[in-house]
Amino acid sequence: MPTQRGYRQACGIARGLDIVGERWSLLVVRELLLGPKRFTDLQQALPTASPNALSDRLRELADAGVLRRRQLPPPGNVRVYELTTWGRGLEPIVVALGTWALAAPPTAEQLFVSADSAMLTIRTFFAPRPEEPEATLRIELRDHAAGVFGVRLTSPGAEVTHEPPDEPDAVLVTTTDALLAAFGSDDLTGLVAAGAVVTGDPEVVRRLVAGTRVPGPERSGQLSPGE
To answer: Distance between CA 209 and CA 200 in Å, rounded?
Structure first.
């Protein structure tokens, strides 16, 4: 950890910023909330972070105990980064920060949204209706190489993983921008018009987009809680 840039204050907030306050650190954490990733996966999710900066943040976060590096067993047999138990405790902080920022005025700049950021939007804001049964989806974001996810709609909320179900109730193939723009809609008209393909039970997809209502001055994809 770059202690020469530390705040040197006996305060939990200052100590926390010493650990995760460097540029890209919290976004690295965001990208690992749904599961482990390879270095190349993190590069794709954080395209404007230089390889050196990303390597520095990963090393610092590992030294601090926020994440660890491990080798996946065969057939994967690749090295990945994953959050430690302590590191996963940052999720409510990351989500709360992103939710707070949604109240900020929107920017006209075209913003990149990672696949995991869009999925965290679902996990954060999906509000089920008590009478609705559980359902599963496979979501494929075709603008991301690693954009395949499994979503389970349950009575407490939405569970999101990198492991799609073998026999989902519905499959949604779309782009990240189209998905974000559809959140809060009571029908699939806009999503389908944007080129989305829905197979299986369309009512499950409608429940997903209708139940994911993102607060803020602009809901149509300008910001998501993971950005």
So the answer is: 16
Write out the two tokens for 114: 């990672």
Contact present, 121 and 102 (Cβ < 8 Å) = no
| 197 to 26, 119, 193, 212: CA distances (angstroms) | 33, 18, 10, 19
pLDDT for residue 145: 86
Any residues with CB less than 8 A from the CB of 42 and at least 6 apart, and which? 28, 31, 54, 58, 81
Measured CA angle at 125 (ends 80, 81), to 5 deg: 5
C-beta of residue 153 within 8 angstroms of C-beta of residue 207: yes
pLDDT band at 77 (very low <50, low <70, confident <90, very high): confident
Query: What is the Rg, in whole angstroms, of the alpha carbon atoms belonging to the chain?
Result: 18
DSSP 72: P
Q: Is 60 left (phi over 0), alpha (psi -120 to 50) or beta?
A: alpha
- Report the length, in residues, of the chain: 227
Number of CB atoms found within 10 A of residue 96's CB: 12
Chain segment 10-58, per-residue pLDDT in tens: 899 999 999 999 999 999 999 999 999 999 999 999 999 999 999 999 9
Evaluate if residue 111 carries a pLDDT over 90. Answer: no
Alpha-carbon 43 to chain mean position = 15
What pTM did the predictor assign?
0.89
What distance in Å separates the CA atoms of residue 121 and residue 224, rounded to the nearest whole number? 6
